[in-house]
Amino acid sequence: MNEERKGLKEKITNSDIWRSIFRHGYEDTGRRYTLQILQNVWLHLHPPRVSRHALNFRFTWCMGGITFLMFLVTAVTGVLLMFYYRPTAEYAFRDVQYLEFDIPFGMLLRNMHRWAAHGMVISVMLHMFRVFLTGSYKKPREFNWAVGVILLLVTFFLSFTGYLLPWDQLAFWAVTVGTNMARATPVLGHEGPFAPQDITQSNDVRFALLAGTIVGPSTLLRFYILHCVAVPLLASVLMALHFWRVRKDGGISGPL
Amino acid sequence: MEHFLALVTKPDNVPILAILFLIPYFMWLSYRQARQTDITGVPSDAALNDKVYVWPYLCRNEFICAIIVMLVLGVWSIMIDAPLEEPSDPTKTPNPSKAPWYFLALQEMLVYFDPWIAGVVLPGLIIAGLIAIPYIDINPKGKGYYTIKERPFALAVFSFGFIVLWIVLMIVGTFLRGPGWNFFAPWEYWDPHLVVPLTNVNLSYLFGIRSETTANFFGFVVVAGYFSVGPIFYLWKRNSSRFLQELGLVRYVVVSFLFLTMMALPIKMILRIFFNVKYIWVSPWFNI
Ligand code: HEM
User: Fold this and answer.
1) What is the mean pLDDT of each run of 10 residues along chain A (256 residues)?
2) Which of residues 148-167 of B touch A (CB under 8 A)?
3) Cα separation of A27 and A35, whole Å?
4) Which residue among A43, A161, B50, B131 has its CA within the 20 to 30 Å range from the CA of B104?
5) A56 and B103 in contact by Cβ < 8 A?
6) Strand pairing partners for B177?
7) What ipTM did this prediction achieve?
8) Min CA distance, A69 vs chain B (Å)?
9) pTM for this model (two decimals)
10) Residue B51: which H helix or E strand, with range?
11) What are the distances in angstroms from CA B206 to CA A56, B3, B268?
């Protein structure tokens, strides 16, 4: 029976049709596995081999990878959303409504973008918690932990700048409350302690963030550009650095 | 109760419900591995130290993980719609106005400290403190595996900060804060006209001090006294503790300052909740 099957398999893989499609067979060797990683632009971020415990869900909880996956999902859905959204006070809210009611799968697109963004915030916090619990920030990974902390902030900021864009009550007031504290920055905020006389509400740090004294149309444009261009670029650069350092620091940490 | 239910079922609060489940799960998962390490004295995964090929073993795991996550995300996106409220209106302030859920621990701190501390100084110190962790934790043990016995202090401090001061405050801010940022238990009615008598007094007042200058001086002494716990402990222990000698003065200063600052939050919360203390130090320039 087995012999028969083997014969049949060979007959098929040796046939002219098969060989015209697949140029060569798949060698089952370590060399093959290594090349598979090294010769693929998307996979060569990985080392060819890792220690076995790094595969363990129990160890990494997969949280770094899930954070990255969520980032990719928001990037793809975000680009699609940009086709339908104009960052002005007249259009922003109506464009979101239009997207929800009139664009095929528009609602699903928006949902995926929003929930992936929330998912990214959850997974990045859990990733940090895991890295702490396994003591993985210790020598030689000190600097990668620092890069991670900046990535954590960047993730929050990405999510926060996006929160304003639907331009509804929820967005408007959440961002108003969230940026109010900047008034009280020592020295640089007009209500902060030690603020010099010439720091007023129209030139302090909050003004720089909002492009105005309250959340308004120029804030919307500013947050839009930060959200769609500046911060994702920064995040990508930092992630590249982060992943590179994971490898240079000797791969995923482990006992020994 | 209806307000609480409305909050719990708000689409934007789904992540918090997920956290309520995920954090205990991962704490349990890591605790089990840590206990195994601590009982046997050998890291729980020490036997798995041989190398395997990334293709197919790791790529396969990543692939399966990605599929599962995308399935969850897909179901979540089909079942629950992203919120869209009325168009923004600067003249209609909702009560309460809440920041996005991941900032609610910060917003919660505003109850206990003035905005310049809660909104600027403390977040700044959280960031600086997080970055400092690898440089001030000189314990070489417990690297790359779960353990409790080999680094109890580091774990206790970080877990307290992360779980209690970040996650729990975030949940309180999301689910238990109503109009006027007053505290409402889940079963309570959200009364927008609730009058909470402002009986808070400054610490100096509790001690019978009435003059402003004396109160200023008193506040300074209390705050300075609190932060001098660090140096005093150092002077007291430096000769007898090998740990302190290894840590060194600079690291010690950073560790004790960050630790005392972090503990200032729960201390102020307790003073406020149980003793109605408003400020500890009232000065002409700032209040703490
Ligand atoms: C956008 C955010 C982030 C992404 C996409 C990301 C991604 C990753 C990935 C894929 C890994 C490989 C191991 C794993 O999956 O656990 C990793 C490891 C690591 N991450 Fe992150 N990370 C992020 C944020 C952070 C944060 C916030 C921290 C800490 C504050 C951090 C610190 C580290 C460290 C120290 C390692 C090495 C862990 C080890 O060797 O065991 N990362 N990161």
Assistant:
1) 79 90 84 88 88 90 96 98 96 96 96 97 97 96 98 97 96 93 87 85 90 94 97 98 95 87
2) 151, 154-155, 158, 162
3) 11
4) B131
5) no
6) B183
7) 0.94
8) 7
9) 0.93
10) strand B51-53
11) 56, 37, 15
